[in-house]
Amino acid sequence: MPEIAIETRDLQRSFGDLVAVAGVDLEVSAGEIYAFLGPNGAGKTTTVRMLTTLLQPSGGTAQVAGHDVVRDAAAVRRSIGVALQEAALDPLMKGRELIQLQATLHGMLRPEGRRRAEDLLERVGLTQAADRQVGTYSGGMRRRLDLASALVHEPKVLFLDEPTTGLDPVSRKSIWEEVEKLNREGTTVFLTTQYLEEADNLADRVGIIDDGRIVVEGTPGSLKAEIGHPHLEVKVADGTADRATEVLKRFGKPMPAKDGAALVELETGAAGVAPVVRALDDAGLAVESLELVEPTLDDVFVAKTGYHLEGDEGSEGSDPQELAEPEPAP
Question: How many CB atoms within 10 Å of residue 242?
Fold first, then answer.
């Protein structure tokens, strides 16, 4: 039986009358990449803050690397690396200085700390920028430096809270490659994200959280297979989307509209496209684009929550923890 790196039972967190995490059960095996997927305000960041001992649970239990997050908080911290959404990097420090400081804080002697800093800066591609002030770094460079900082003490479990939010595609791909490399070397990775592609590309397993509860969990492949059928995305001329939706209902299960397109699930896949096109033409609707899409994690999200994840990131509000008064670590 594989070793368990992260385990929670009925994990809860409330802020007054506001329930941010409503009873989460998790079991992440050592060596996994586990993606925690959900919109802003779903409880992702609050869960991570509890698992990393930055926030006390209101109820339930959690163990990380074999240590209870409340009773053995210090042992948990020694076992984990953490890179949160907002990197706490001093803009006046140089990259090399920051990594060496982290090494000192972890009890390394100066020569060992210097060696570790050089190794990590090379690993994340920042050797050339090591003697520049962090304030001059791009967003992608700061994320890579924060990742290097989290790896100084060679943690067993690495927590990454939305590590690529706001990054350009090249920087995002660089972070993905480093995460995969770390995992191949044996590091367990717990990744929170709003990006479906990120979860699909990186994760061994995915947990989807909505309104403080996990609504579904499994491998990306198994979750998509559970949904089963491809869907057709149809864009028509302005002002005729509602009429198009009525036509599509005759050919399969309608789905919530996305980016102005009407969607319908087609059990017969590609074979069902031609009749739909003929029906739209007979209804006098001008089709601007039509695409048959195989099941995705977004389809899984829609099936379990009733709405799309992508495109809604800014509409759900902040995680309740971010709106609460700061709480000192236990």
Answer: 10
Let me know: does 149 contact 98? Beta carbons within 8 Å.
yes
Show the tokens assigned to 241: 């989307």
Task: Tell me, yes or no, whether 306 lies in a domain.
Answer: no
What would the pLDDT profile of 54-102 be if each residue is shown by its tens digit? 999 999 999 999 999 999 999 999 999 999 877 678 999 999 999 999 9
What single-letter DSSP state applies at residue 94? Answer: B
Q: For 235, phi and psi rounded to 5 degrees? A: -105, 130
Q: What is the CA radius of gyration of the chain?
A: 23
The boundaries of the domain holding residue 277 are 229-294
- 139-194 pLDDT, tens digit per residue, is 889 989 999 999 999 999 999 988 888 888 888 888 899 999 999 999 999 999 88
For residue 23, give the CATH number of its domain.
3.40.50.300
pLDDT digits (tens, 9 = 90+) for 125-141: 999 999 999 999 998 89
191 and 121 fall within a common domain: yes
- C-beta separation of 64 from 73 below 8 A: no
Strand order in the sheet with 157-161: 80-83, 157-161, 188-193, 33-37, 205-210, 213-218
> Based on the structure, what is the number of domains in the chain?
2
pLDDT tens across 261-278, in order? 899 988 888 888 999 999
Q: HEC profile for 15-68?
A: ECCEEEEEEEEEEEECCCEEEEECCCCCCHHHHHHHHCCCCCCCEEEEEECCEE
As given in the structure block, the two tokens for residue 322 are 């971010």
Question: Beta partners for 236?
Answer: 287
Kindly report, residue by residue over 278-290, the tens digit of the pLDDT. Answer: 999 999 998 999 9
H helix and E strand count, the chain = 12, 14
182 plus 265 within the same structural domain: no
Answer yes or no: do 169 and 116 share one domain. Answer: yes
For residue 20, the model assigns a pLDDT of 95
Ramachandran angles phi, psi of 67, nearest 5°: -120, 140
